[in-house]
Amino acid sequence: MLLAIEDFVPVLLSAAGLWLISRWVGSTDTRLGGWAIAGTALVALGGLSKATHKLLLATTNTDVTLLDAALFPLLAAGFAVVAASVWSAAQPRRPVLASLLAAPVVWVIGFAAYGATGRGAFIGLATVGSVTLSVLLIRRARRLDLRLASWLFVVALALTIVLGGMAPTLGDAIEFQWLEQGTNTLNQALFWLAAVLLHRSAATRYETEHTAGRP
C-alpha cells in the first residue's frame, strides 16, 4: 500500500514541473501558455489515473481497467501539446496551430495503430513526446545560458531512458518496484528543479524589462 501511495509523488512533481514550464511559455505568448497548461492537465490526469488504479488495487483489490488504460493515451497527447507549445514559443511567428492540433493528431495516430500494436502505439507516442520535450527544453536552457537547468534536464532525460528498460528487466519483486519508483521520483524531482530555474529566469527577465527606464 505504501508503494501505491508513493506513486503519487512523481506524478505531482511532474505536474508541478510542467506547470512551471507552461508559465514560462505563457511569459512569451499567453495563448501558447494556455495550451501548455492544457497539455500539463492531460499528463497529470494520466499519471493520477494510473496511481489511483494502483492504490485501489492495493487497498481494495479492485481492478478498474479504464484507469490503467488511460495512462499512455493521456501522456501521449499531453506531452505532444506541451512540446508543440514550447517549440512554437521559440518561433518568430509563434504558430498556435501546432499546439491546437497536437493532441488530436496523436490520438488519431495512436488509435489507428492500436489494432496492430495494442497499447504499444501509445507507449511509443508518449515516449517520443516526452523525449522531444526534454530535447527542446535542453536546447532552450542552453540558449538562455542556464547551464545547471540544461544539465538537470539532460540527467532527467537519461533517467527516463533508464526507466524504459527497468520494467521488463527487473521483474515484479517488491524491491525492484521500489527501485524503479525511486528512480522515477528522482527523475521527476530533477525535472521539477530544472523547471524552477527556467521559470525564475523568465520572471527575472520580465522584472528587468518592466523596471528598465523607471526613475
Strand segment tally: 0
Q: Please give the count of helices.
A: 9
Sketch the topology as an H/E string, one letter per element.
HHHHHHHHH
What Rg do the Cα atoms give? 18 Å
How large a portion of the residues is in β-strands, by DSSP E?
A: under 5%
Reported for the largest beta sheet, the result is: none
Approximate shape: globular
Helix content: over 70%
The low-pLDDT segments are none
Category from helices, strands and their pairing: mainly alpha
Describe this structure in words.
- With 215 residues, the protein is mainly α.
- The chain is 87% helix and 0% strand.
- Helix 2 (8-28) runs antiparallel to helix 3 and helix 5 packs antiparallel against helix 6 (97-117).
- The protein is globular.
- The relative contact order is 0.14.
Supply database-style keywords.
mainly alpha, globular, 215 residues
Précis, in short:
The protein is built from nine helices and no strands. It is mainly α and 215 residues long. The longest helix has 38 residues, at 174-211.
Sequence-ordered SSE layout with sheet pairings:
Blueprint: H1 2-6, H2 8-28, H3 30-60, H4 65-69, H5 71-89, H6 97-117, H7 120-143, H8 147-170, H9 174-211
